[in-house]
Amino acid sequence: MADAGPQALCAREPRVPAERLVAEMVPPPRFDSVRFDTYNPDPTQPSQSEAVTVLSGFAAGLGGAHASGAGRKRWFSKKQAAPTGPRGVYLDGGYGVGKTHLLASLWHATPAEPALKAFGTFVELTNLVGALGFQQTVQTLGGHRLLCIDEFELDDPGDTVLVSSLLSRLVEQGVALAATSNTLPGKLGEGRFAAADFLREIQGLSAHFRPLRIDGQDYRHRGLPEAPAPFGDEQVTKAAYATEGASLDDFPGLLEHLARVHPSRYGALTDGLTAVCLTDVGPVPDQSTALRLVVLADRLYDREIPVLASGVPFDKLFSEDMLNGGYRKKYFRAISRLTALARDAKPLVSQ
Q: Kind and range of the H or E element at 246?
């Protein structure tokens, strides 16, 4: 048995200073070691191999001096003209085709010091603006060689305008951009790809992005067994007590707690955990709760924290209305990621 009983996520109320938000703008732990040569393209989907080639060339092209001439003395120069031509790439594909792997590989391959590269989700970027203010964020990121934005939130018009304005300022300063995105509500009947929506929503920035379509099926289920069936409450509880660094929570109680913690703190909520154990998992009651759970699933997946659960299987978390609605892509991503973490947690029961 573990030396102490399991922790409880519901007992945690983390506070995250702005400095930590800046310092953590790097690929998450799950993607620390990914590189282009560790990406496993589906041989039946040539667009995946093509993406590796294009992104490798894009990274190589970011070497040398900063596009705006940052770091040089410009005693007599006027304001630098904005860079012409594509200064960004947009990875366009369904969930599970490895977009985040490729985005993180681009960050790693770009020839610049880590302090001159930033990587974060759209939510993390908006949280940074909220913490630092718009002008300070521009100053903080303006000297960077590259900014990678994962899961650009096209379904939030206000934040989309805010981030588009921020990116415009950064492009003027020579920052290269790379992004992935979700799908706009009401557009899912037109297909899973979102390039047209993305380029329209960022308006004046569209000329700076080259869309790169990546076809394929969810790699997490390519040739892998189905998700393990949920365990019993007693099995989950016993495993939580036997696993050092595990947490143990009742699922309905955890959902209530997430409503009291800002999503920007969900990463900090999981600090130091080796596993998350949940009892009485059931269908999520409403869309607001469901979207908070999606953010938590993303943070758990980023940090490779196994999830052991009793109750209903993870593919039963969201109602048919949710899975057919505007946030369908987010919910399927959450199911996919939680299923992968459930597989990782299976050995905990036999400890």
A: strand 246-250
Short-list 147, 70, 141, 143, CA closest to 110: 147
The sign of the torsion formed by the CA atoms of 195, 196, 199, 202 equals negative
Q: How many C-alpha atoms does 203 have within 13 Å on its Cβ side?
A: 10
**Which of 152, 44, 25 has the alpha carbon at shortest distance from 99?**
152
Q: Are 145 and 62 in contact (CB under 8 A)?
A: yes
Tokens describing residue 254:
């955890």
Give the up-direction half-sphere exposure of residue 242: CA atoms within 13 A in the CB hemisphere. 13
Report if pTM > 0.85. no
In DSSP terms, 350 is beta-bridged to none
- Hey, is 319 helix, strand or coil? coil
What pairs with residue 176 in β-bridges?
A: 146
Cα torsion 118, 124, 128, 129 to 10°: value is 110
Q: How many CA atoms lie within 13 A of 117 on its CB side?
A: 20
Spatial separation of the C-alpha atoms in residues 199 and 179, rounded to whole Å:
11
**Which residues are within 8 A (CB) of 118 and not within 5 positions of it... i.e. 6 or more apart?**
25, 26, 141, 144, 146, 147, 148
Q: How far is CA 332 from CA 42, 53, 339, in A?
A: 20, 28, 10
DSSP 7: B
How long is the chain?
A: 351
What span, in angstroms and rounded, lies between the C-alpha atoms of 42 and 221? 12
Q: Which residues lie closer than 8 Å to 171 by C-beta, 6 or more apart?
A: 82, 83, 87, 88, 177, 205, 208
pLDDT value, residue 228: 72
**Per-run averaged pLDDT (10 residues), the chain, 351 residues:** 79 86 87 94 92 95 62 39 64 82 97 94 86 92 94 73 88 92 47 58 71 76 64 96 97 97 89 97 95 93 94 93 84 89 92 59
